[in-house]
Write a structure and sequence with these properties.
Blueprint (H helix, E strand, L loop, with lengths): L3 E5 L3 E3 L2 E3 L14 E6 L7 E6 L4 E7 L2 E6 L4 E6 L4 E5 L4 E5 L6 E6 L8 E2 L2 H11 L1
Antiparallel strand pairs: 1-9, 2-3, 4-11, 5-10, 5-12, 6-9, 6-11, 7-8, 7-10
Bound molecules: dTDP-4-keto-6-deoxyglucose (T46).
């Protein structure tokens, strides 16, 4: 499946602990216009269930773990994120769902655009129609 990539970040560690720097144009291939984070997710909760028309995002589980399901209309892939030195880049038409949040999970997302509800496709049949029109 294209339109997604796992990016490994360099950990800058010393005897005080670890530090990871994310810099636009260096380990993030888009201009960062927005940052949001999801935390205190209740047990059993599933989120997402939408695709984006133009948004690019880099998702990093900075603490705990969570699983992304990516769906391009033809195949589905499960990606478990449990390491702050790895980011999931999602670009293009991909339906996403998130599940299995650990109690301590903090999911940080860097986004290429400001929040715009018009960029969301929240209906799966409409998403499939967009995929057909796109190919
Ligand atoms: C995505 C996945 C990974 C805002 O007002 N501003 C924002 O920047 C965001 C992201 C959300 N909101 C509002 C919209 C909703 O009323 O916050 C509420 C929760 O958003 P949503 O239901 O879209 O959350 P998720 O977890 O289903 O999806 C989020 C992002 O919205 C989405 O872009 O790819 O995380």
């Amino acid at each position: 499946m294209s339109n997604y990539k796992l990016i490994d970040f360099k950990t800058l560690g010393d005897d005080r602990g670890s530090l990871i720097a994310i810099e636009e144009g260096y380990n993030t291939p888009f201009e960062i216009k927005r940052v949001y984070y999801i935390f205190d997710t209740q047990k059993g909760v599933e989120r997402g269930f939408h695709a984006h028309i133009g948004l690019k995002q880099l998702a990093i589980v900075v603490k705990g773990c969570s699983t992304f399901i990516l769906d391009n209309g033809k195949e589905r892939k499960e990606i478990k994120l449990n390491n702050p030195n790895q980011g999931l880049l999602i670009e293009g038409l991909i339906w996403r769902e998130m599940k299995d949040f650990s109690e301590d999970c903090v999911l940080l997302v860097l986004a290429s655009e400001h929040y715009d509800e018009k960029d969301y496709i929240r209906d799966y049949d409409k998403f499939l129609e967009e995929v057909r029109n796109d190919s």
